[in-house]
Structure prediction request, 913 residues.
Amino acid sequence: MDTIKDRTMSVYKFGNKKADGRKELKNLLGGKGANLAEMSRIGIPVPPGFTITTEVCTQFNQEGKKAIIDRIESEVREAIAEIEETMGAHFGDDENPLLISVRSGARVSMPGMMDTVLNLGLNEESIAGLVEKTGNERFVWDSYRRFIQMYSGVVLGLKPENKEDLDPFEEIIDHLKEKRNIDLDTHFTVQDLKDLVYDFKDIVKKRTGKPFPKDPWDQLWGAVIAVFESWNGDRALYYRKMHGYPEDWGTAVNVQAMVFGNMGEDSATGVCFTRDAGTGENKFNGEYLVNAQGEDVVAGVRTPQQITKTGSRRWAELAQISEEDRAENYPSLEELMPEMYKELFGYQRTLEDHYRDMQDMEFTIQQGKLWILQTRNGKRTGAAMVKIAMDLLSEGLIDEKATIERIDPIKLDELLHPVFDPKALMEATVIAQGLPASPGAATGKIVFFADEAAKYKFSILVRIETSPEDLEGMNIARGIVTARGGMTSHAAVVARGMGKCCVSGAGALKINYKARTLTVGDHVYQEGDWISINGSTGNILEGKVATKEPELSGEFGQLMALTDKYARMQVRTNADNPKDALIARGFGAKGIGLTRTEHMFFEVDRIKAMREMILADTVKGRKQALRELLPMQRGDFEGIFEAMEGFPVTIRLLDPPLHEFVPHQLATQRELAEELHISLANVKQKVAELEEFNPMMGHRGCRLGNTYPEITEMQARAIIEAALNVKKNKGIESQPEIMVPLVGTVEEFLLQKSIIQQTAEEVFNERKDKISYSIGTMIEIPRAALLADKIAGHADFFSFGTNDLTQMTFGYSRDDAGKFLSVYLEKGILKEDPFEVLDQEGVGQLVIMGTELGRQAHPGLKVGICGEHGGEPSSVEFCHRVGMNYVSCSPYRVPIARVAAAQAAIKESALMV
Ligand code: PEP
Ligand code: MG
Prediction:
């Protein structure tokens, strides 16, 4: 019988096809712990062990080491006793020692956390006993030297002293290999391994001032505490911040009996995926090594072999290895250990069916017995995420709602990244070939150190191999290349998770960190040289290779269609020209939510007329200049109406302060004076008059249209005439929605409304034709939200301009906030940048109030959002809850908003059941 333990317990045991925990207890047991328990419950062979809960981590952070050890010691001792019984060995025993592994495991997988410590429990005394028991002296000494190396690195913190240095232990190993003239760890003799152990211990003593811990219990507590401490380590903090994971989640600790993949030629260890994490194809795949321990596969020191025969052949082709060489030296698990392969294949099916998602598993074969060490939902690229979700739907494993819920909207962004232009690719020179570890195209300048990734605007991080310390730099770089490591190396797994293009295991690259050079054959590349990498083929190319827009898969289209079935809100786009409007339509935008007309005035041929208008001293002069602008504006609107083919188009009247349009440099002021036949002094004086102390709160928005009504007149005329022209010439019934910006009082709106209506009537009379149009306003000043009922009585629609609304609610200038926001985020004063993620607590109150008051006065009032938040998933969900009709965002965010809108509706319907 499975028992769910008392919630006050700190330790949950698993093994022998039973468990205290289960997969639903992720928050308490961490992802790894919950899955180990679940696997054990469903009959998958996992080495017995236990999980110390995440709650203990939180208590540790509050109460410290001693209090925690006192609290959990008896439970841990009892759990160890149970493992001892199952494995028939004793922890700390000299003759028959039980060895264990210790791993961290938060509720989500976090590469920034403490890695694994293996072989814990070994010391000089128990070595003899283990040799006796296994009859394999080499294996025992190898295990011991690995343990010292890992424990010293992750628990005692022995890292390279300078970034140019190698890992101190690797350096000792390399040194010995050189001395002994061997390439592989497996060629070390027993004496070599003993020498390594003594050298390792020396360095530990020298660097820490203390001998390496001998007592297994000291070793265990050291490792447990190190796991808890790693939760607040720099790397974990960075990762948590990047993903917004709160501090109080904590991490669990998993302690498990060791099983050995390095017990000879009938032992192996590997990592496998139930589907392809790069492309999403339904192909079982993975890597393994014979006679090795888990970290050998990911560390990239030896070349891992493929699990399946097909995968192996594909790998050999990419690595330019002949079939003979492959079959002889790098056979697949399927070929080498067919029985083990069959069993593994069965478990991966069971686990995928059970979890109904792609699994990333670790396994070990110890002398012909297969153990599954870990399973989790595999990290994947954006493309794989879409394909896997749609495939699972068509295979009947998940339903439509679950399919949509499986999508991380932000990850869709990856699919919209450029790919290499095939023509440019044909002409490019391939300098080396690695493994296609994470698809995509990236171009940038070479950097060799993660902390220097920001040195260039576009950088490619080139490393021998990466480690969790490199996380931040990997995120900043455009792409990642490693000389070592397979498809499951740290670089490959992390890059896929980040959606970052990555080529791993490019063995031909010789990297010299000290000289900061990359040598391939006889060609030397320096830091700062351009290279391009193709994460879909593994090619590394010389120089900068041109890119183009990506083509989207059929599954992507199907997913998008599915979102329409569930989303209540529509998704529109912010677009100022036909090109952007067409891109957004391609992504399924159902209209334009914001056209910023001022952007049309910045173009070279228009700015002159605009400046003439601004510098005019009289209404007549201004009208004259506006007459020149009218046809240009009209042309722009015609283009947009045509592109939108009858979908609604919200056009906003001029918003920014006029000083943005006039030149501030003497030379350009002089040019302008000449062009307009006025004196330089005159230009200078006008520019000075337009100068404002606080332009964001100055003469902008409808304040312009109310002080210079002729501007509104011209814009209204251009919009109405354009709609009439498009109707006449193309038969398209446009639906212009004319939007008044920065309204704070109802009078401001009414004055603008009457100018628009009057102008429209004039145009209808002149043209003897009509179109329907509407007039609404932006709600972007707190006062407008507070008095929304007054305004709504006269408005056809509201669109929340949450950029300005955030600025004015917080009192943070959009132009100046950069100076302090990063500090605020670092210090935790703000959890998120409110200009990116809508502040639901504060600004959100105004949005709710504005919508409710507006609809009280005007039932059926159309309400949307057009600030940057309209494409940010959590803000989209908020807009849904508020009851908005649509969100509007930049073209490339449209797919993200569509998924977020559907997810919001699904979440709501689940709550209502
Ligand atoms: C806004 O303020 O949210 C908005 C969309 O307008 P702009 O960013 O142009 O001020
Ligand atoms: Mg605004």
Summary: Confidence is low (pLDDT under 50) at residues 1-5.
